[in-house]
């Protein structure tokens, strides 16, 4: 009897230990019936960026140092300088176009010198430890003349049809852009409209050199008369459908009404990507288009970065790791604190995705409907501000939330999936003070 008690005590101790640790071993496994828990934090830093800034090189009033000062005041960490590459227009009278001609040239990168321009940006970047400065140009690939000088109906067409070229990181690369203004286009300004071929030439050139290409202010219009010459550029939202392999477009301020609205042109080209009709997705950014008279934080492109470096910022633009903000009638922007899809059964489609979680610009493979986690807030909280958030799938608004900020949503989209199908989700948010937020899409591919 004296030995039974110690043996019994050992047995009871082992039993208690098993009971104590059994729940831990069970909770550490995810089963097919378990509801997935979203990550507690996102792996990215949100760095505000101001895109499309003109300096005195092409007629702007603010120097790079001026922009740096404003950026520090407004907590902006990235500046993308995009002076006009050329503002040179030449008209020759037939049949002696080479002899009897008039050339008008305004300040531009080519007039300033590509090497001088690139050195200016590089020097400013090397002396700035807190704000990253990225090189770029606002490019005019093509223009053409119609009418006649003697008939007094001479028209300069499409000079305002612009593309932002960003991140070539090479003075010679900018110098050799295929443009009429530098004589390197294969087209002439006297042969009429060439549709979108000159613009596709520029897109292909920049892609081959690792740059980013964004359609600038695609819904803007220019119509005026200068010294009896009609200057005319119609809005060009169709550019997004007519060209391929560009990085994206500027949704604010002049790219939303036809392109960026739900089921607009942007959704059309995103669906074409989902249907394998396009090789690359199309991303949205915001552009300030400033000559020195705008609030630098009126339009922001927020970069989702793990490290704030030049190449990381370029990769962020290329891969849709951004969202766009437009400031309305208040001093505070909206903030996209969280936007991701998650599913425990999903297989990551790239090394950047872990555990079946996908953020803006990413795609993951799953055999079941995804869960969405979204949180929208304000940079400077204001009590009682109401906002409307639209969740868009394949161009259609699948959920609309109208409530006081912050808005926090977590739900499963019971979408009827088809094996091999690719879909996307994106966000469109506006508050009662007309502050707007547009996310880039997250893609999902279903695989049984």
What characteristics describe this protein?
twelve-stranded mixed β-sheet; disordered N terminus; alpha+beta; globular; 448 residues; Immunoglobulin-like; six-stranded mixed β-sheet; TIM Barrel
Largest sheet: 12 strands, mixed
Share in β-strands:
25-35%
Cα gyration radius (Å)? 27 Å
Global morphology: globular
| Span between termini | 63 Å
Uncertain regions: pLDDT < 50 for 5+ in a row? 1-34, 348-354
Query: Helical element count?
Result: 10
What's the rounded overall pLDDT mean? 88
CATH superfamily of the largest domain: Metal-dependent hydrolases
What is the level-2 CATH architecture name of the largest domain? Alpha-Beta Barrel
Return the CATH topology of the largest domain: TIM Barrel
CATH class of the largest domain: Alpha Beta
- Overall structural class, as computed from helix and strand content, comes to alpha+beta
Number of domains: 2
- Please provide the count of β strands: 28
Helix coverage percent: 10-25%
Characterise the protein shown here.
With 448 residues, the protein is α+β, with helices and mostly antiparallel strands. It has 2 domains: 34-326, Metal-dependent hydrolases (TIM Barrel, Alpha-Beta Barrel); 330-448, Immunoglobulin-like (Sandwich), CATH 2.60.40. 21% of the residues lie in helices and 32% in strands. It has 10 helices and 28 strands. It has helices at 4-27, 64-73, 109-112, 114-126, 171-175, 197-208, 239-242, 256-260, 265-274, 310-318; strands at residues 45-53, 78-81, 83-84, 88-92, 101-105, 132-134, 136-139, 144-146, 155-157, 163-166, 212-215, 222-226, 229-233, 248-252, 283-286, 299-305, 322-326, 334-342, 347-348, 357-359, 363-366, 371-378, 386-393, 396-404, 407-412, 422-431, 436-439, 442-446. The strands form 5 sheets. Strands 1, 2, 6, 16, 17, 19, 21, 23, 24, 26, 27 and 28 form a 12-stranded mixed sheet that branches. The protein has a 6-stranded mixed sheet with strand order 3-7-10-11-14-15. Strand 23 and strand 24 form a beta hairpin. The chain is globular, with a radius of gyration of 27 Å.
């Amino acid at each position: 009897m004296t030995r039974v008690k110690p043996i019994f005590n050992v047995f009871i101790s082992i039993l208690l230990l098993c009971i104590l640790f059994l729940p831990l071993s069970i909770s550490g496994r995810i089963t097919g019936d378990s509801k997935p828990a979203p990550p507690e934090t996102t792996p990215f830093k949100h760095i505000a960026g101001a895109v499309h800034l003109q300096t005195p090189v092409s007629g702007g009033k603010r120097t790079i140092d001026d922009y740096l000062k404003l950026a520090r005041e407004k907590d902006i960490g990235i500046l993308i300088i995009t002076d006009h590459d050329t503002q040179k227009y030449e008209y020759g009278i037939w049949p002696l176009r080479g002899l009897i001609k008039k050339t008008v040239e305004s300040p531009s990168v080519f007039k300033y010198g590509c090497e001088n321009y690139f050195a200016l940006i590089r020097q400013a970047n090397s002396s700035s430890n807190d704000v990253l400065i990225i090189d770029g140009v606002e490019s005019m690939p093509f223009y053409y003349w119609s009418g006649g000088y003697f008939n007094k109906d001479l028209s300069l067409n499409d000079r305002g049809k612009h593309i932002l070229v960003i991140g070539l990181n090479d003075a010679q690369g900018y110098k050799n852009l295929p443009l009429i203004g530098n004589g390197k286009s294969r087209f002439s300004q006297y042969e009429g409209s060439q549709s979108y071929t000159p613009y596709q030439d520029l897109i292909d050139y920049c892609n081959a050199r690792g740059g980013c290409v964004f359609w600038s202010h695609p819904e803007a219009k220019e119509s005026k008369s200068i010294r009896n010459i009609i200057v005319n550029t119609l809005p060009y939202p169709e550019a997004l459908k007519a060209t391929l392999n560009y990085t994206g477009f500027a949704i604010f301020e002049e790219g939303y009404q036809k392109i960026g609205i739900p089921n607009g042109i942007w959704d059309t080209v995103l669906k074409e990507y989902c249907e394998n009709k396009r090789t690359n997705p199309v991303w949205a950014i915001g552009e300030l288009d400033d000559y020195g008279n705008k609030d630098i934080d009126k339009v922001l492109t927020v970069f989702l970065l793990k490290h704030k470096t030049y190449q990381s910022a370029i990769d962020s633009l290329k891969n849709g790791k951004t969202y766009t903000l437009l400031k309305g009638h208040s001093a505070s922007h909206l903030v996209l604190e969280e936007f991701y899809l998650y599913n425990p059964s999903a297989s990551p489609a790239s090394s950047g995705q872990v555990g079946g979680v996908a953020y803006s610009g990413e795609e993951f493979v799953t055999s079941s409907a995804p869960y969405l986690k979204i949180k929208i807030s304000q940079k400077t909280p204001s009590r009682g501000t109401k906002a409307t958030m639209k969740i868009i799938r394949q161009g259609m608004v699948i959920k609309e939330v109208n409530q006081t900020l912050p808005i926090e949503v977590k739900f499963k989209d019971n979408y009827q999936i088809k094996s091999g199908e690719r879909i996307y989700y994106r966000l469109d948010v506006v508050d009662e003070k007309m502050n707007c937020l547009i996310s880039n899409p997250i893609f999902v591919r279903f695989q049984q």
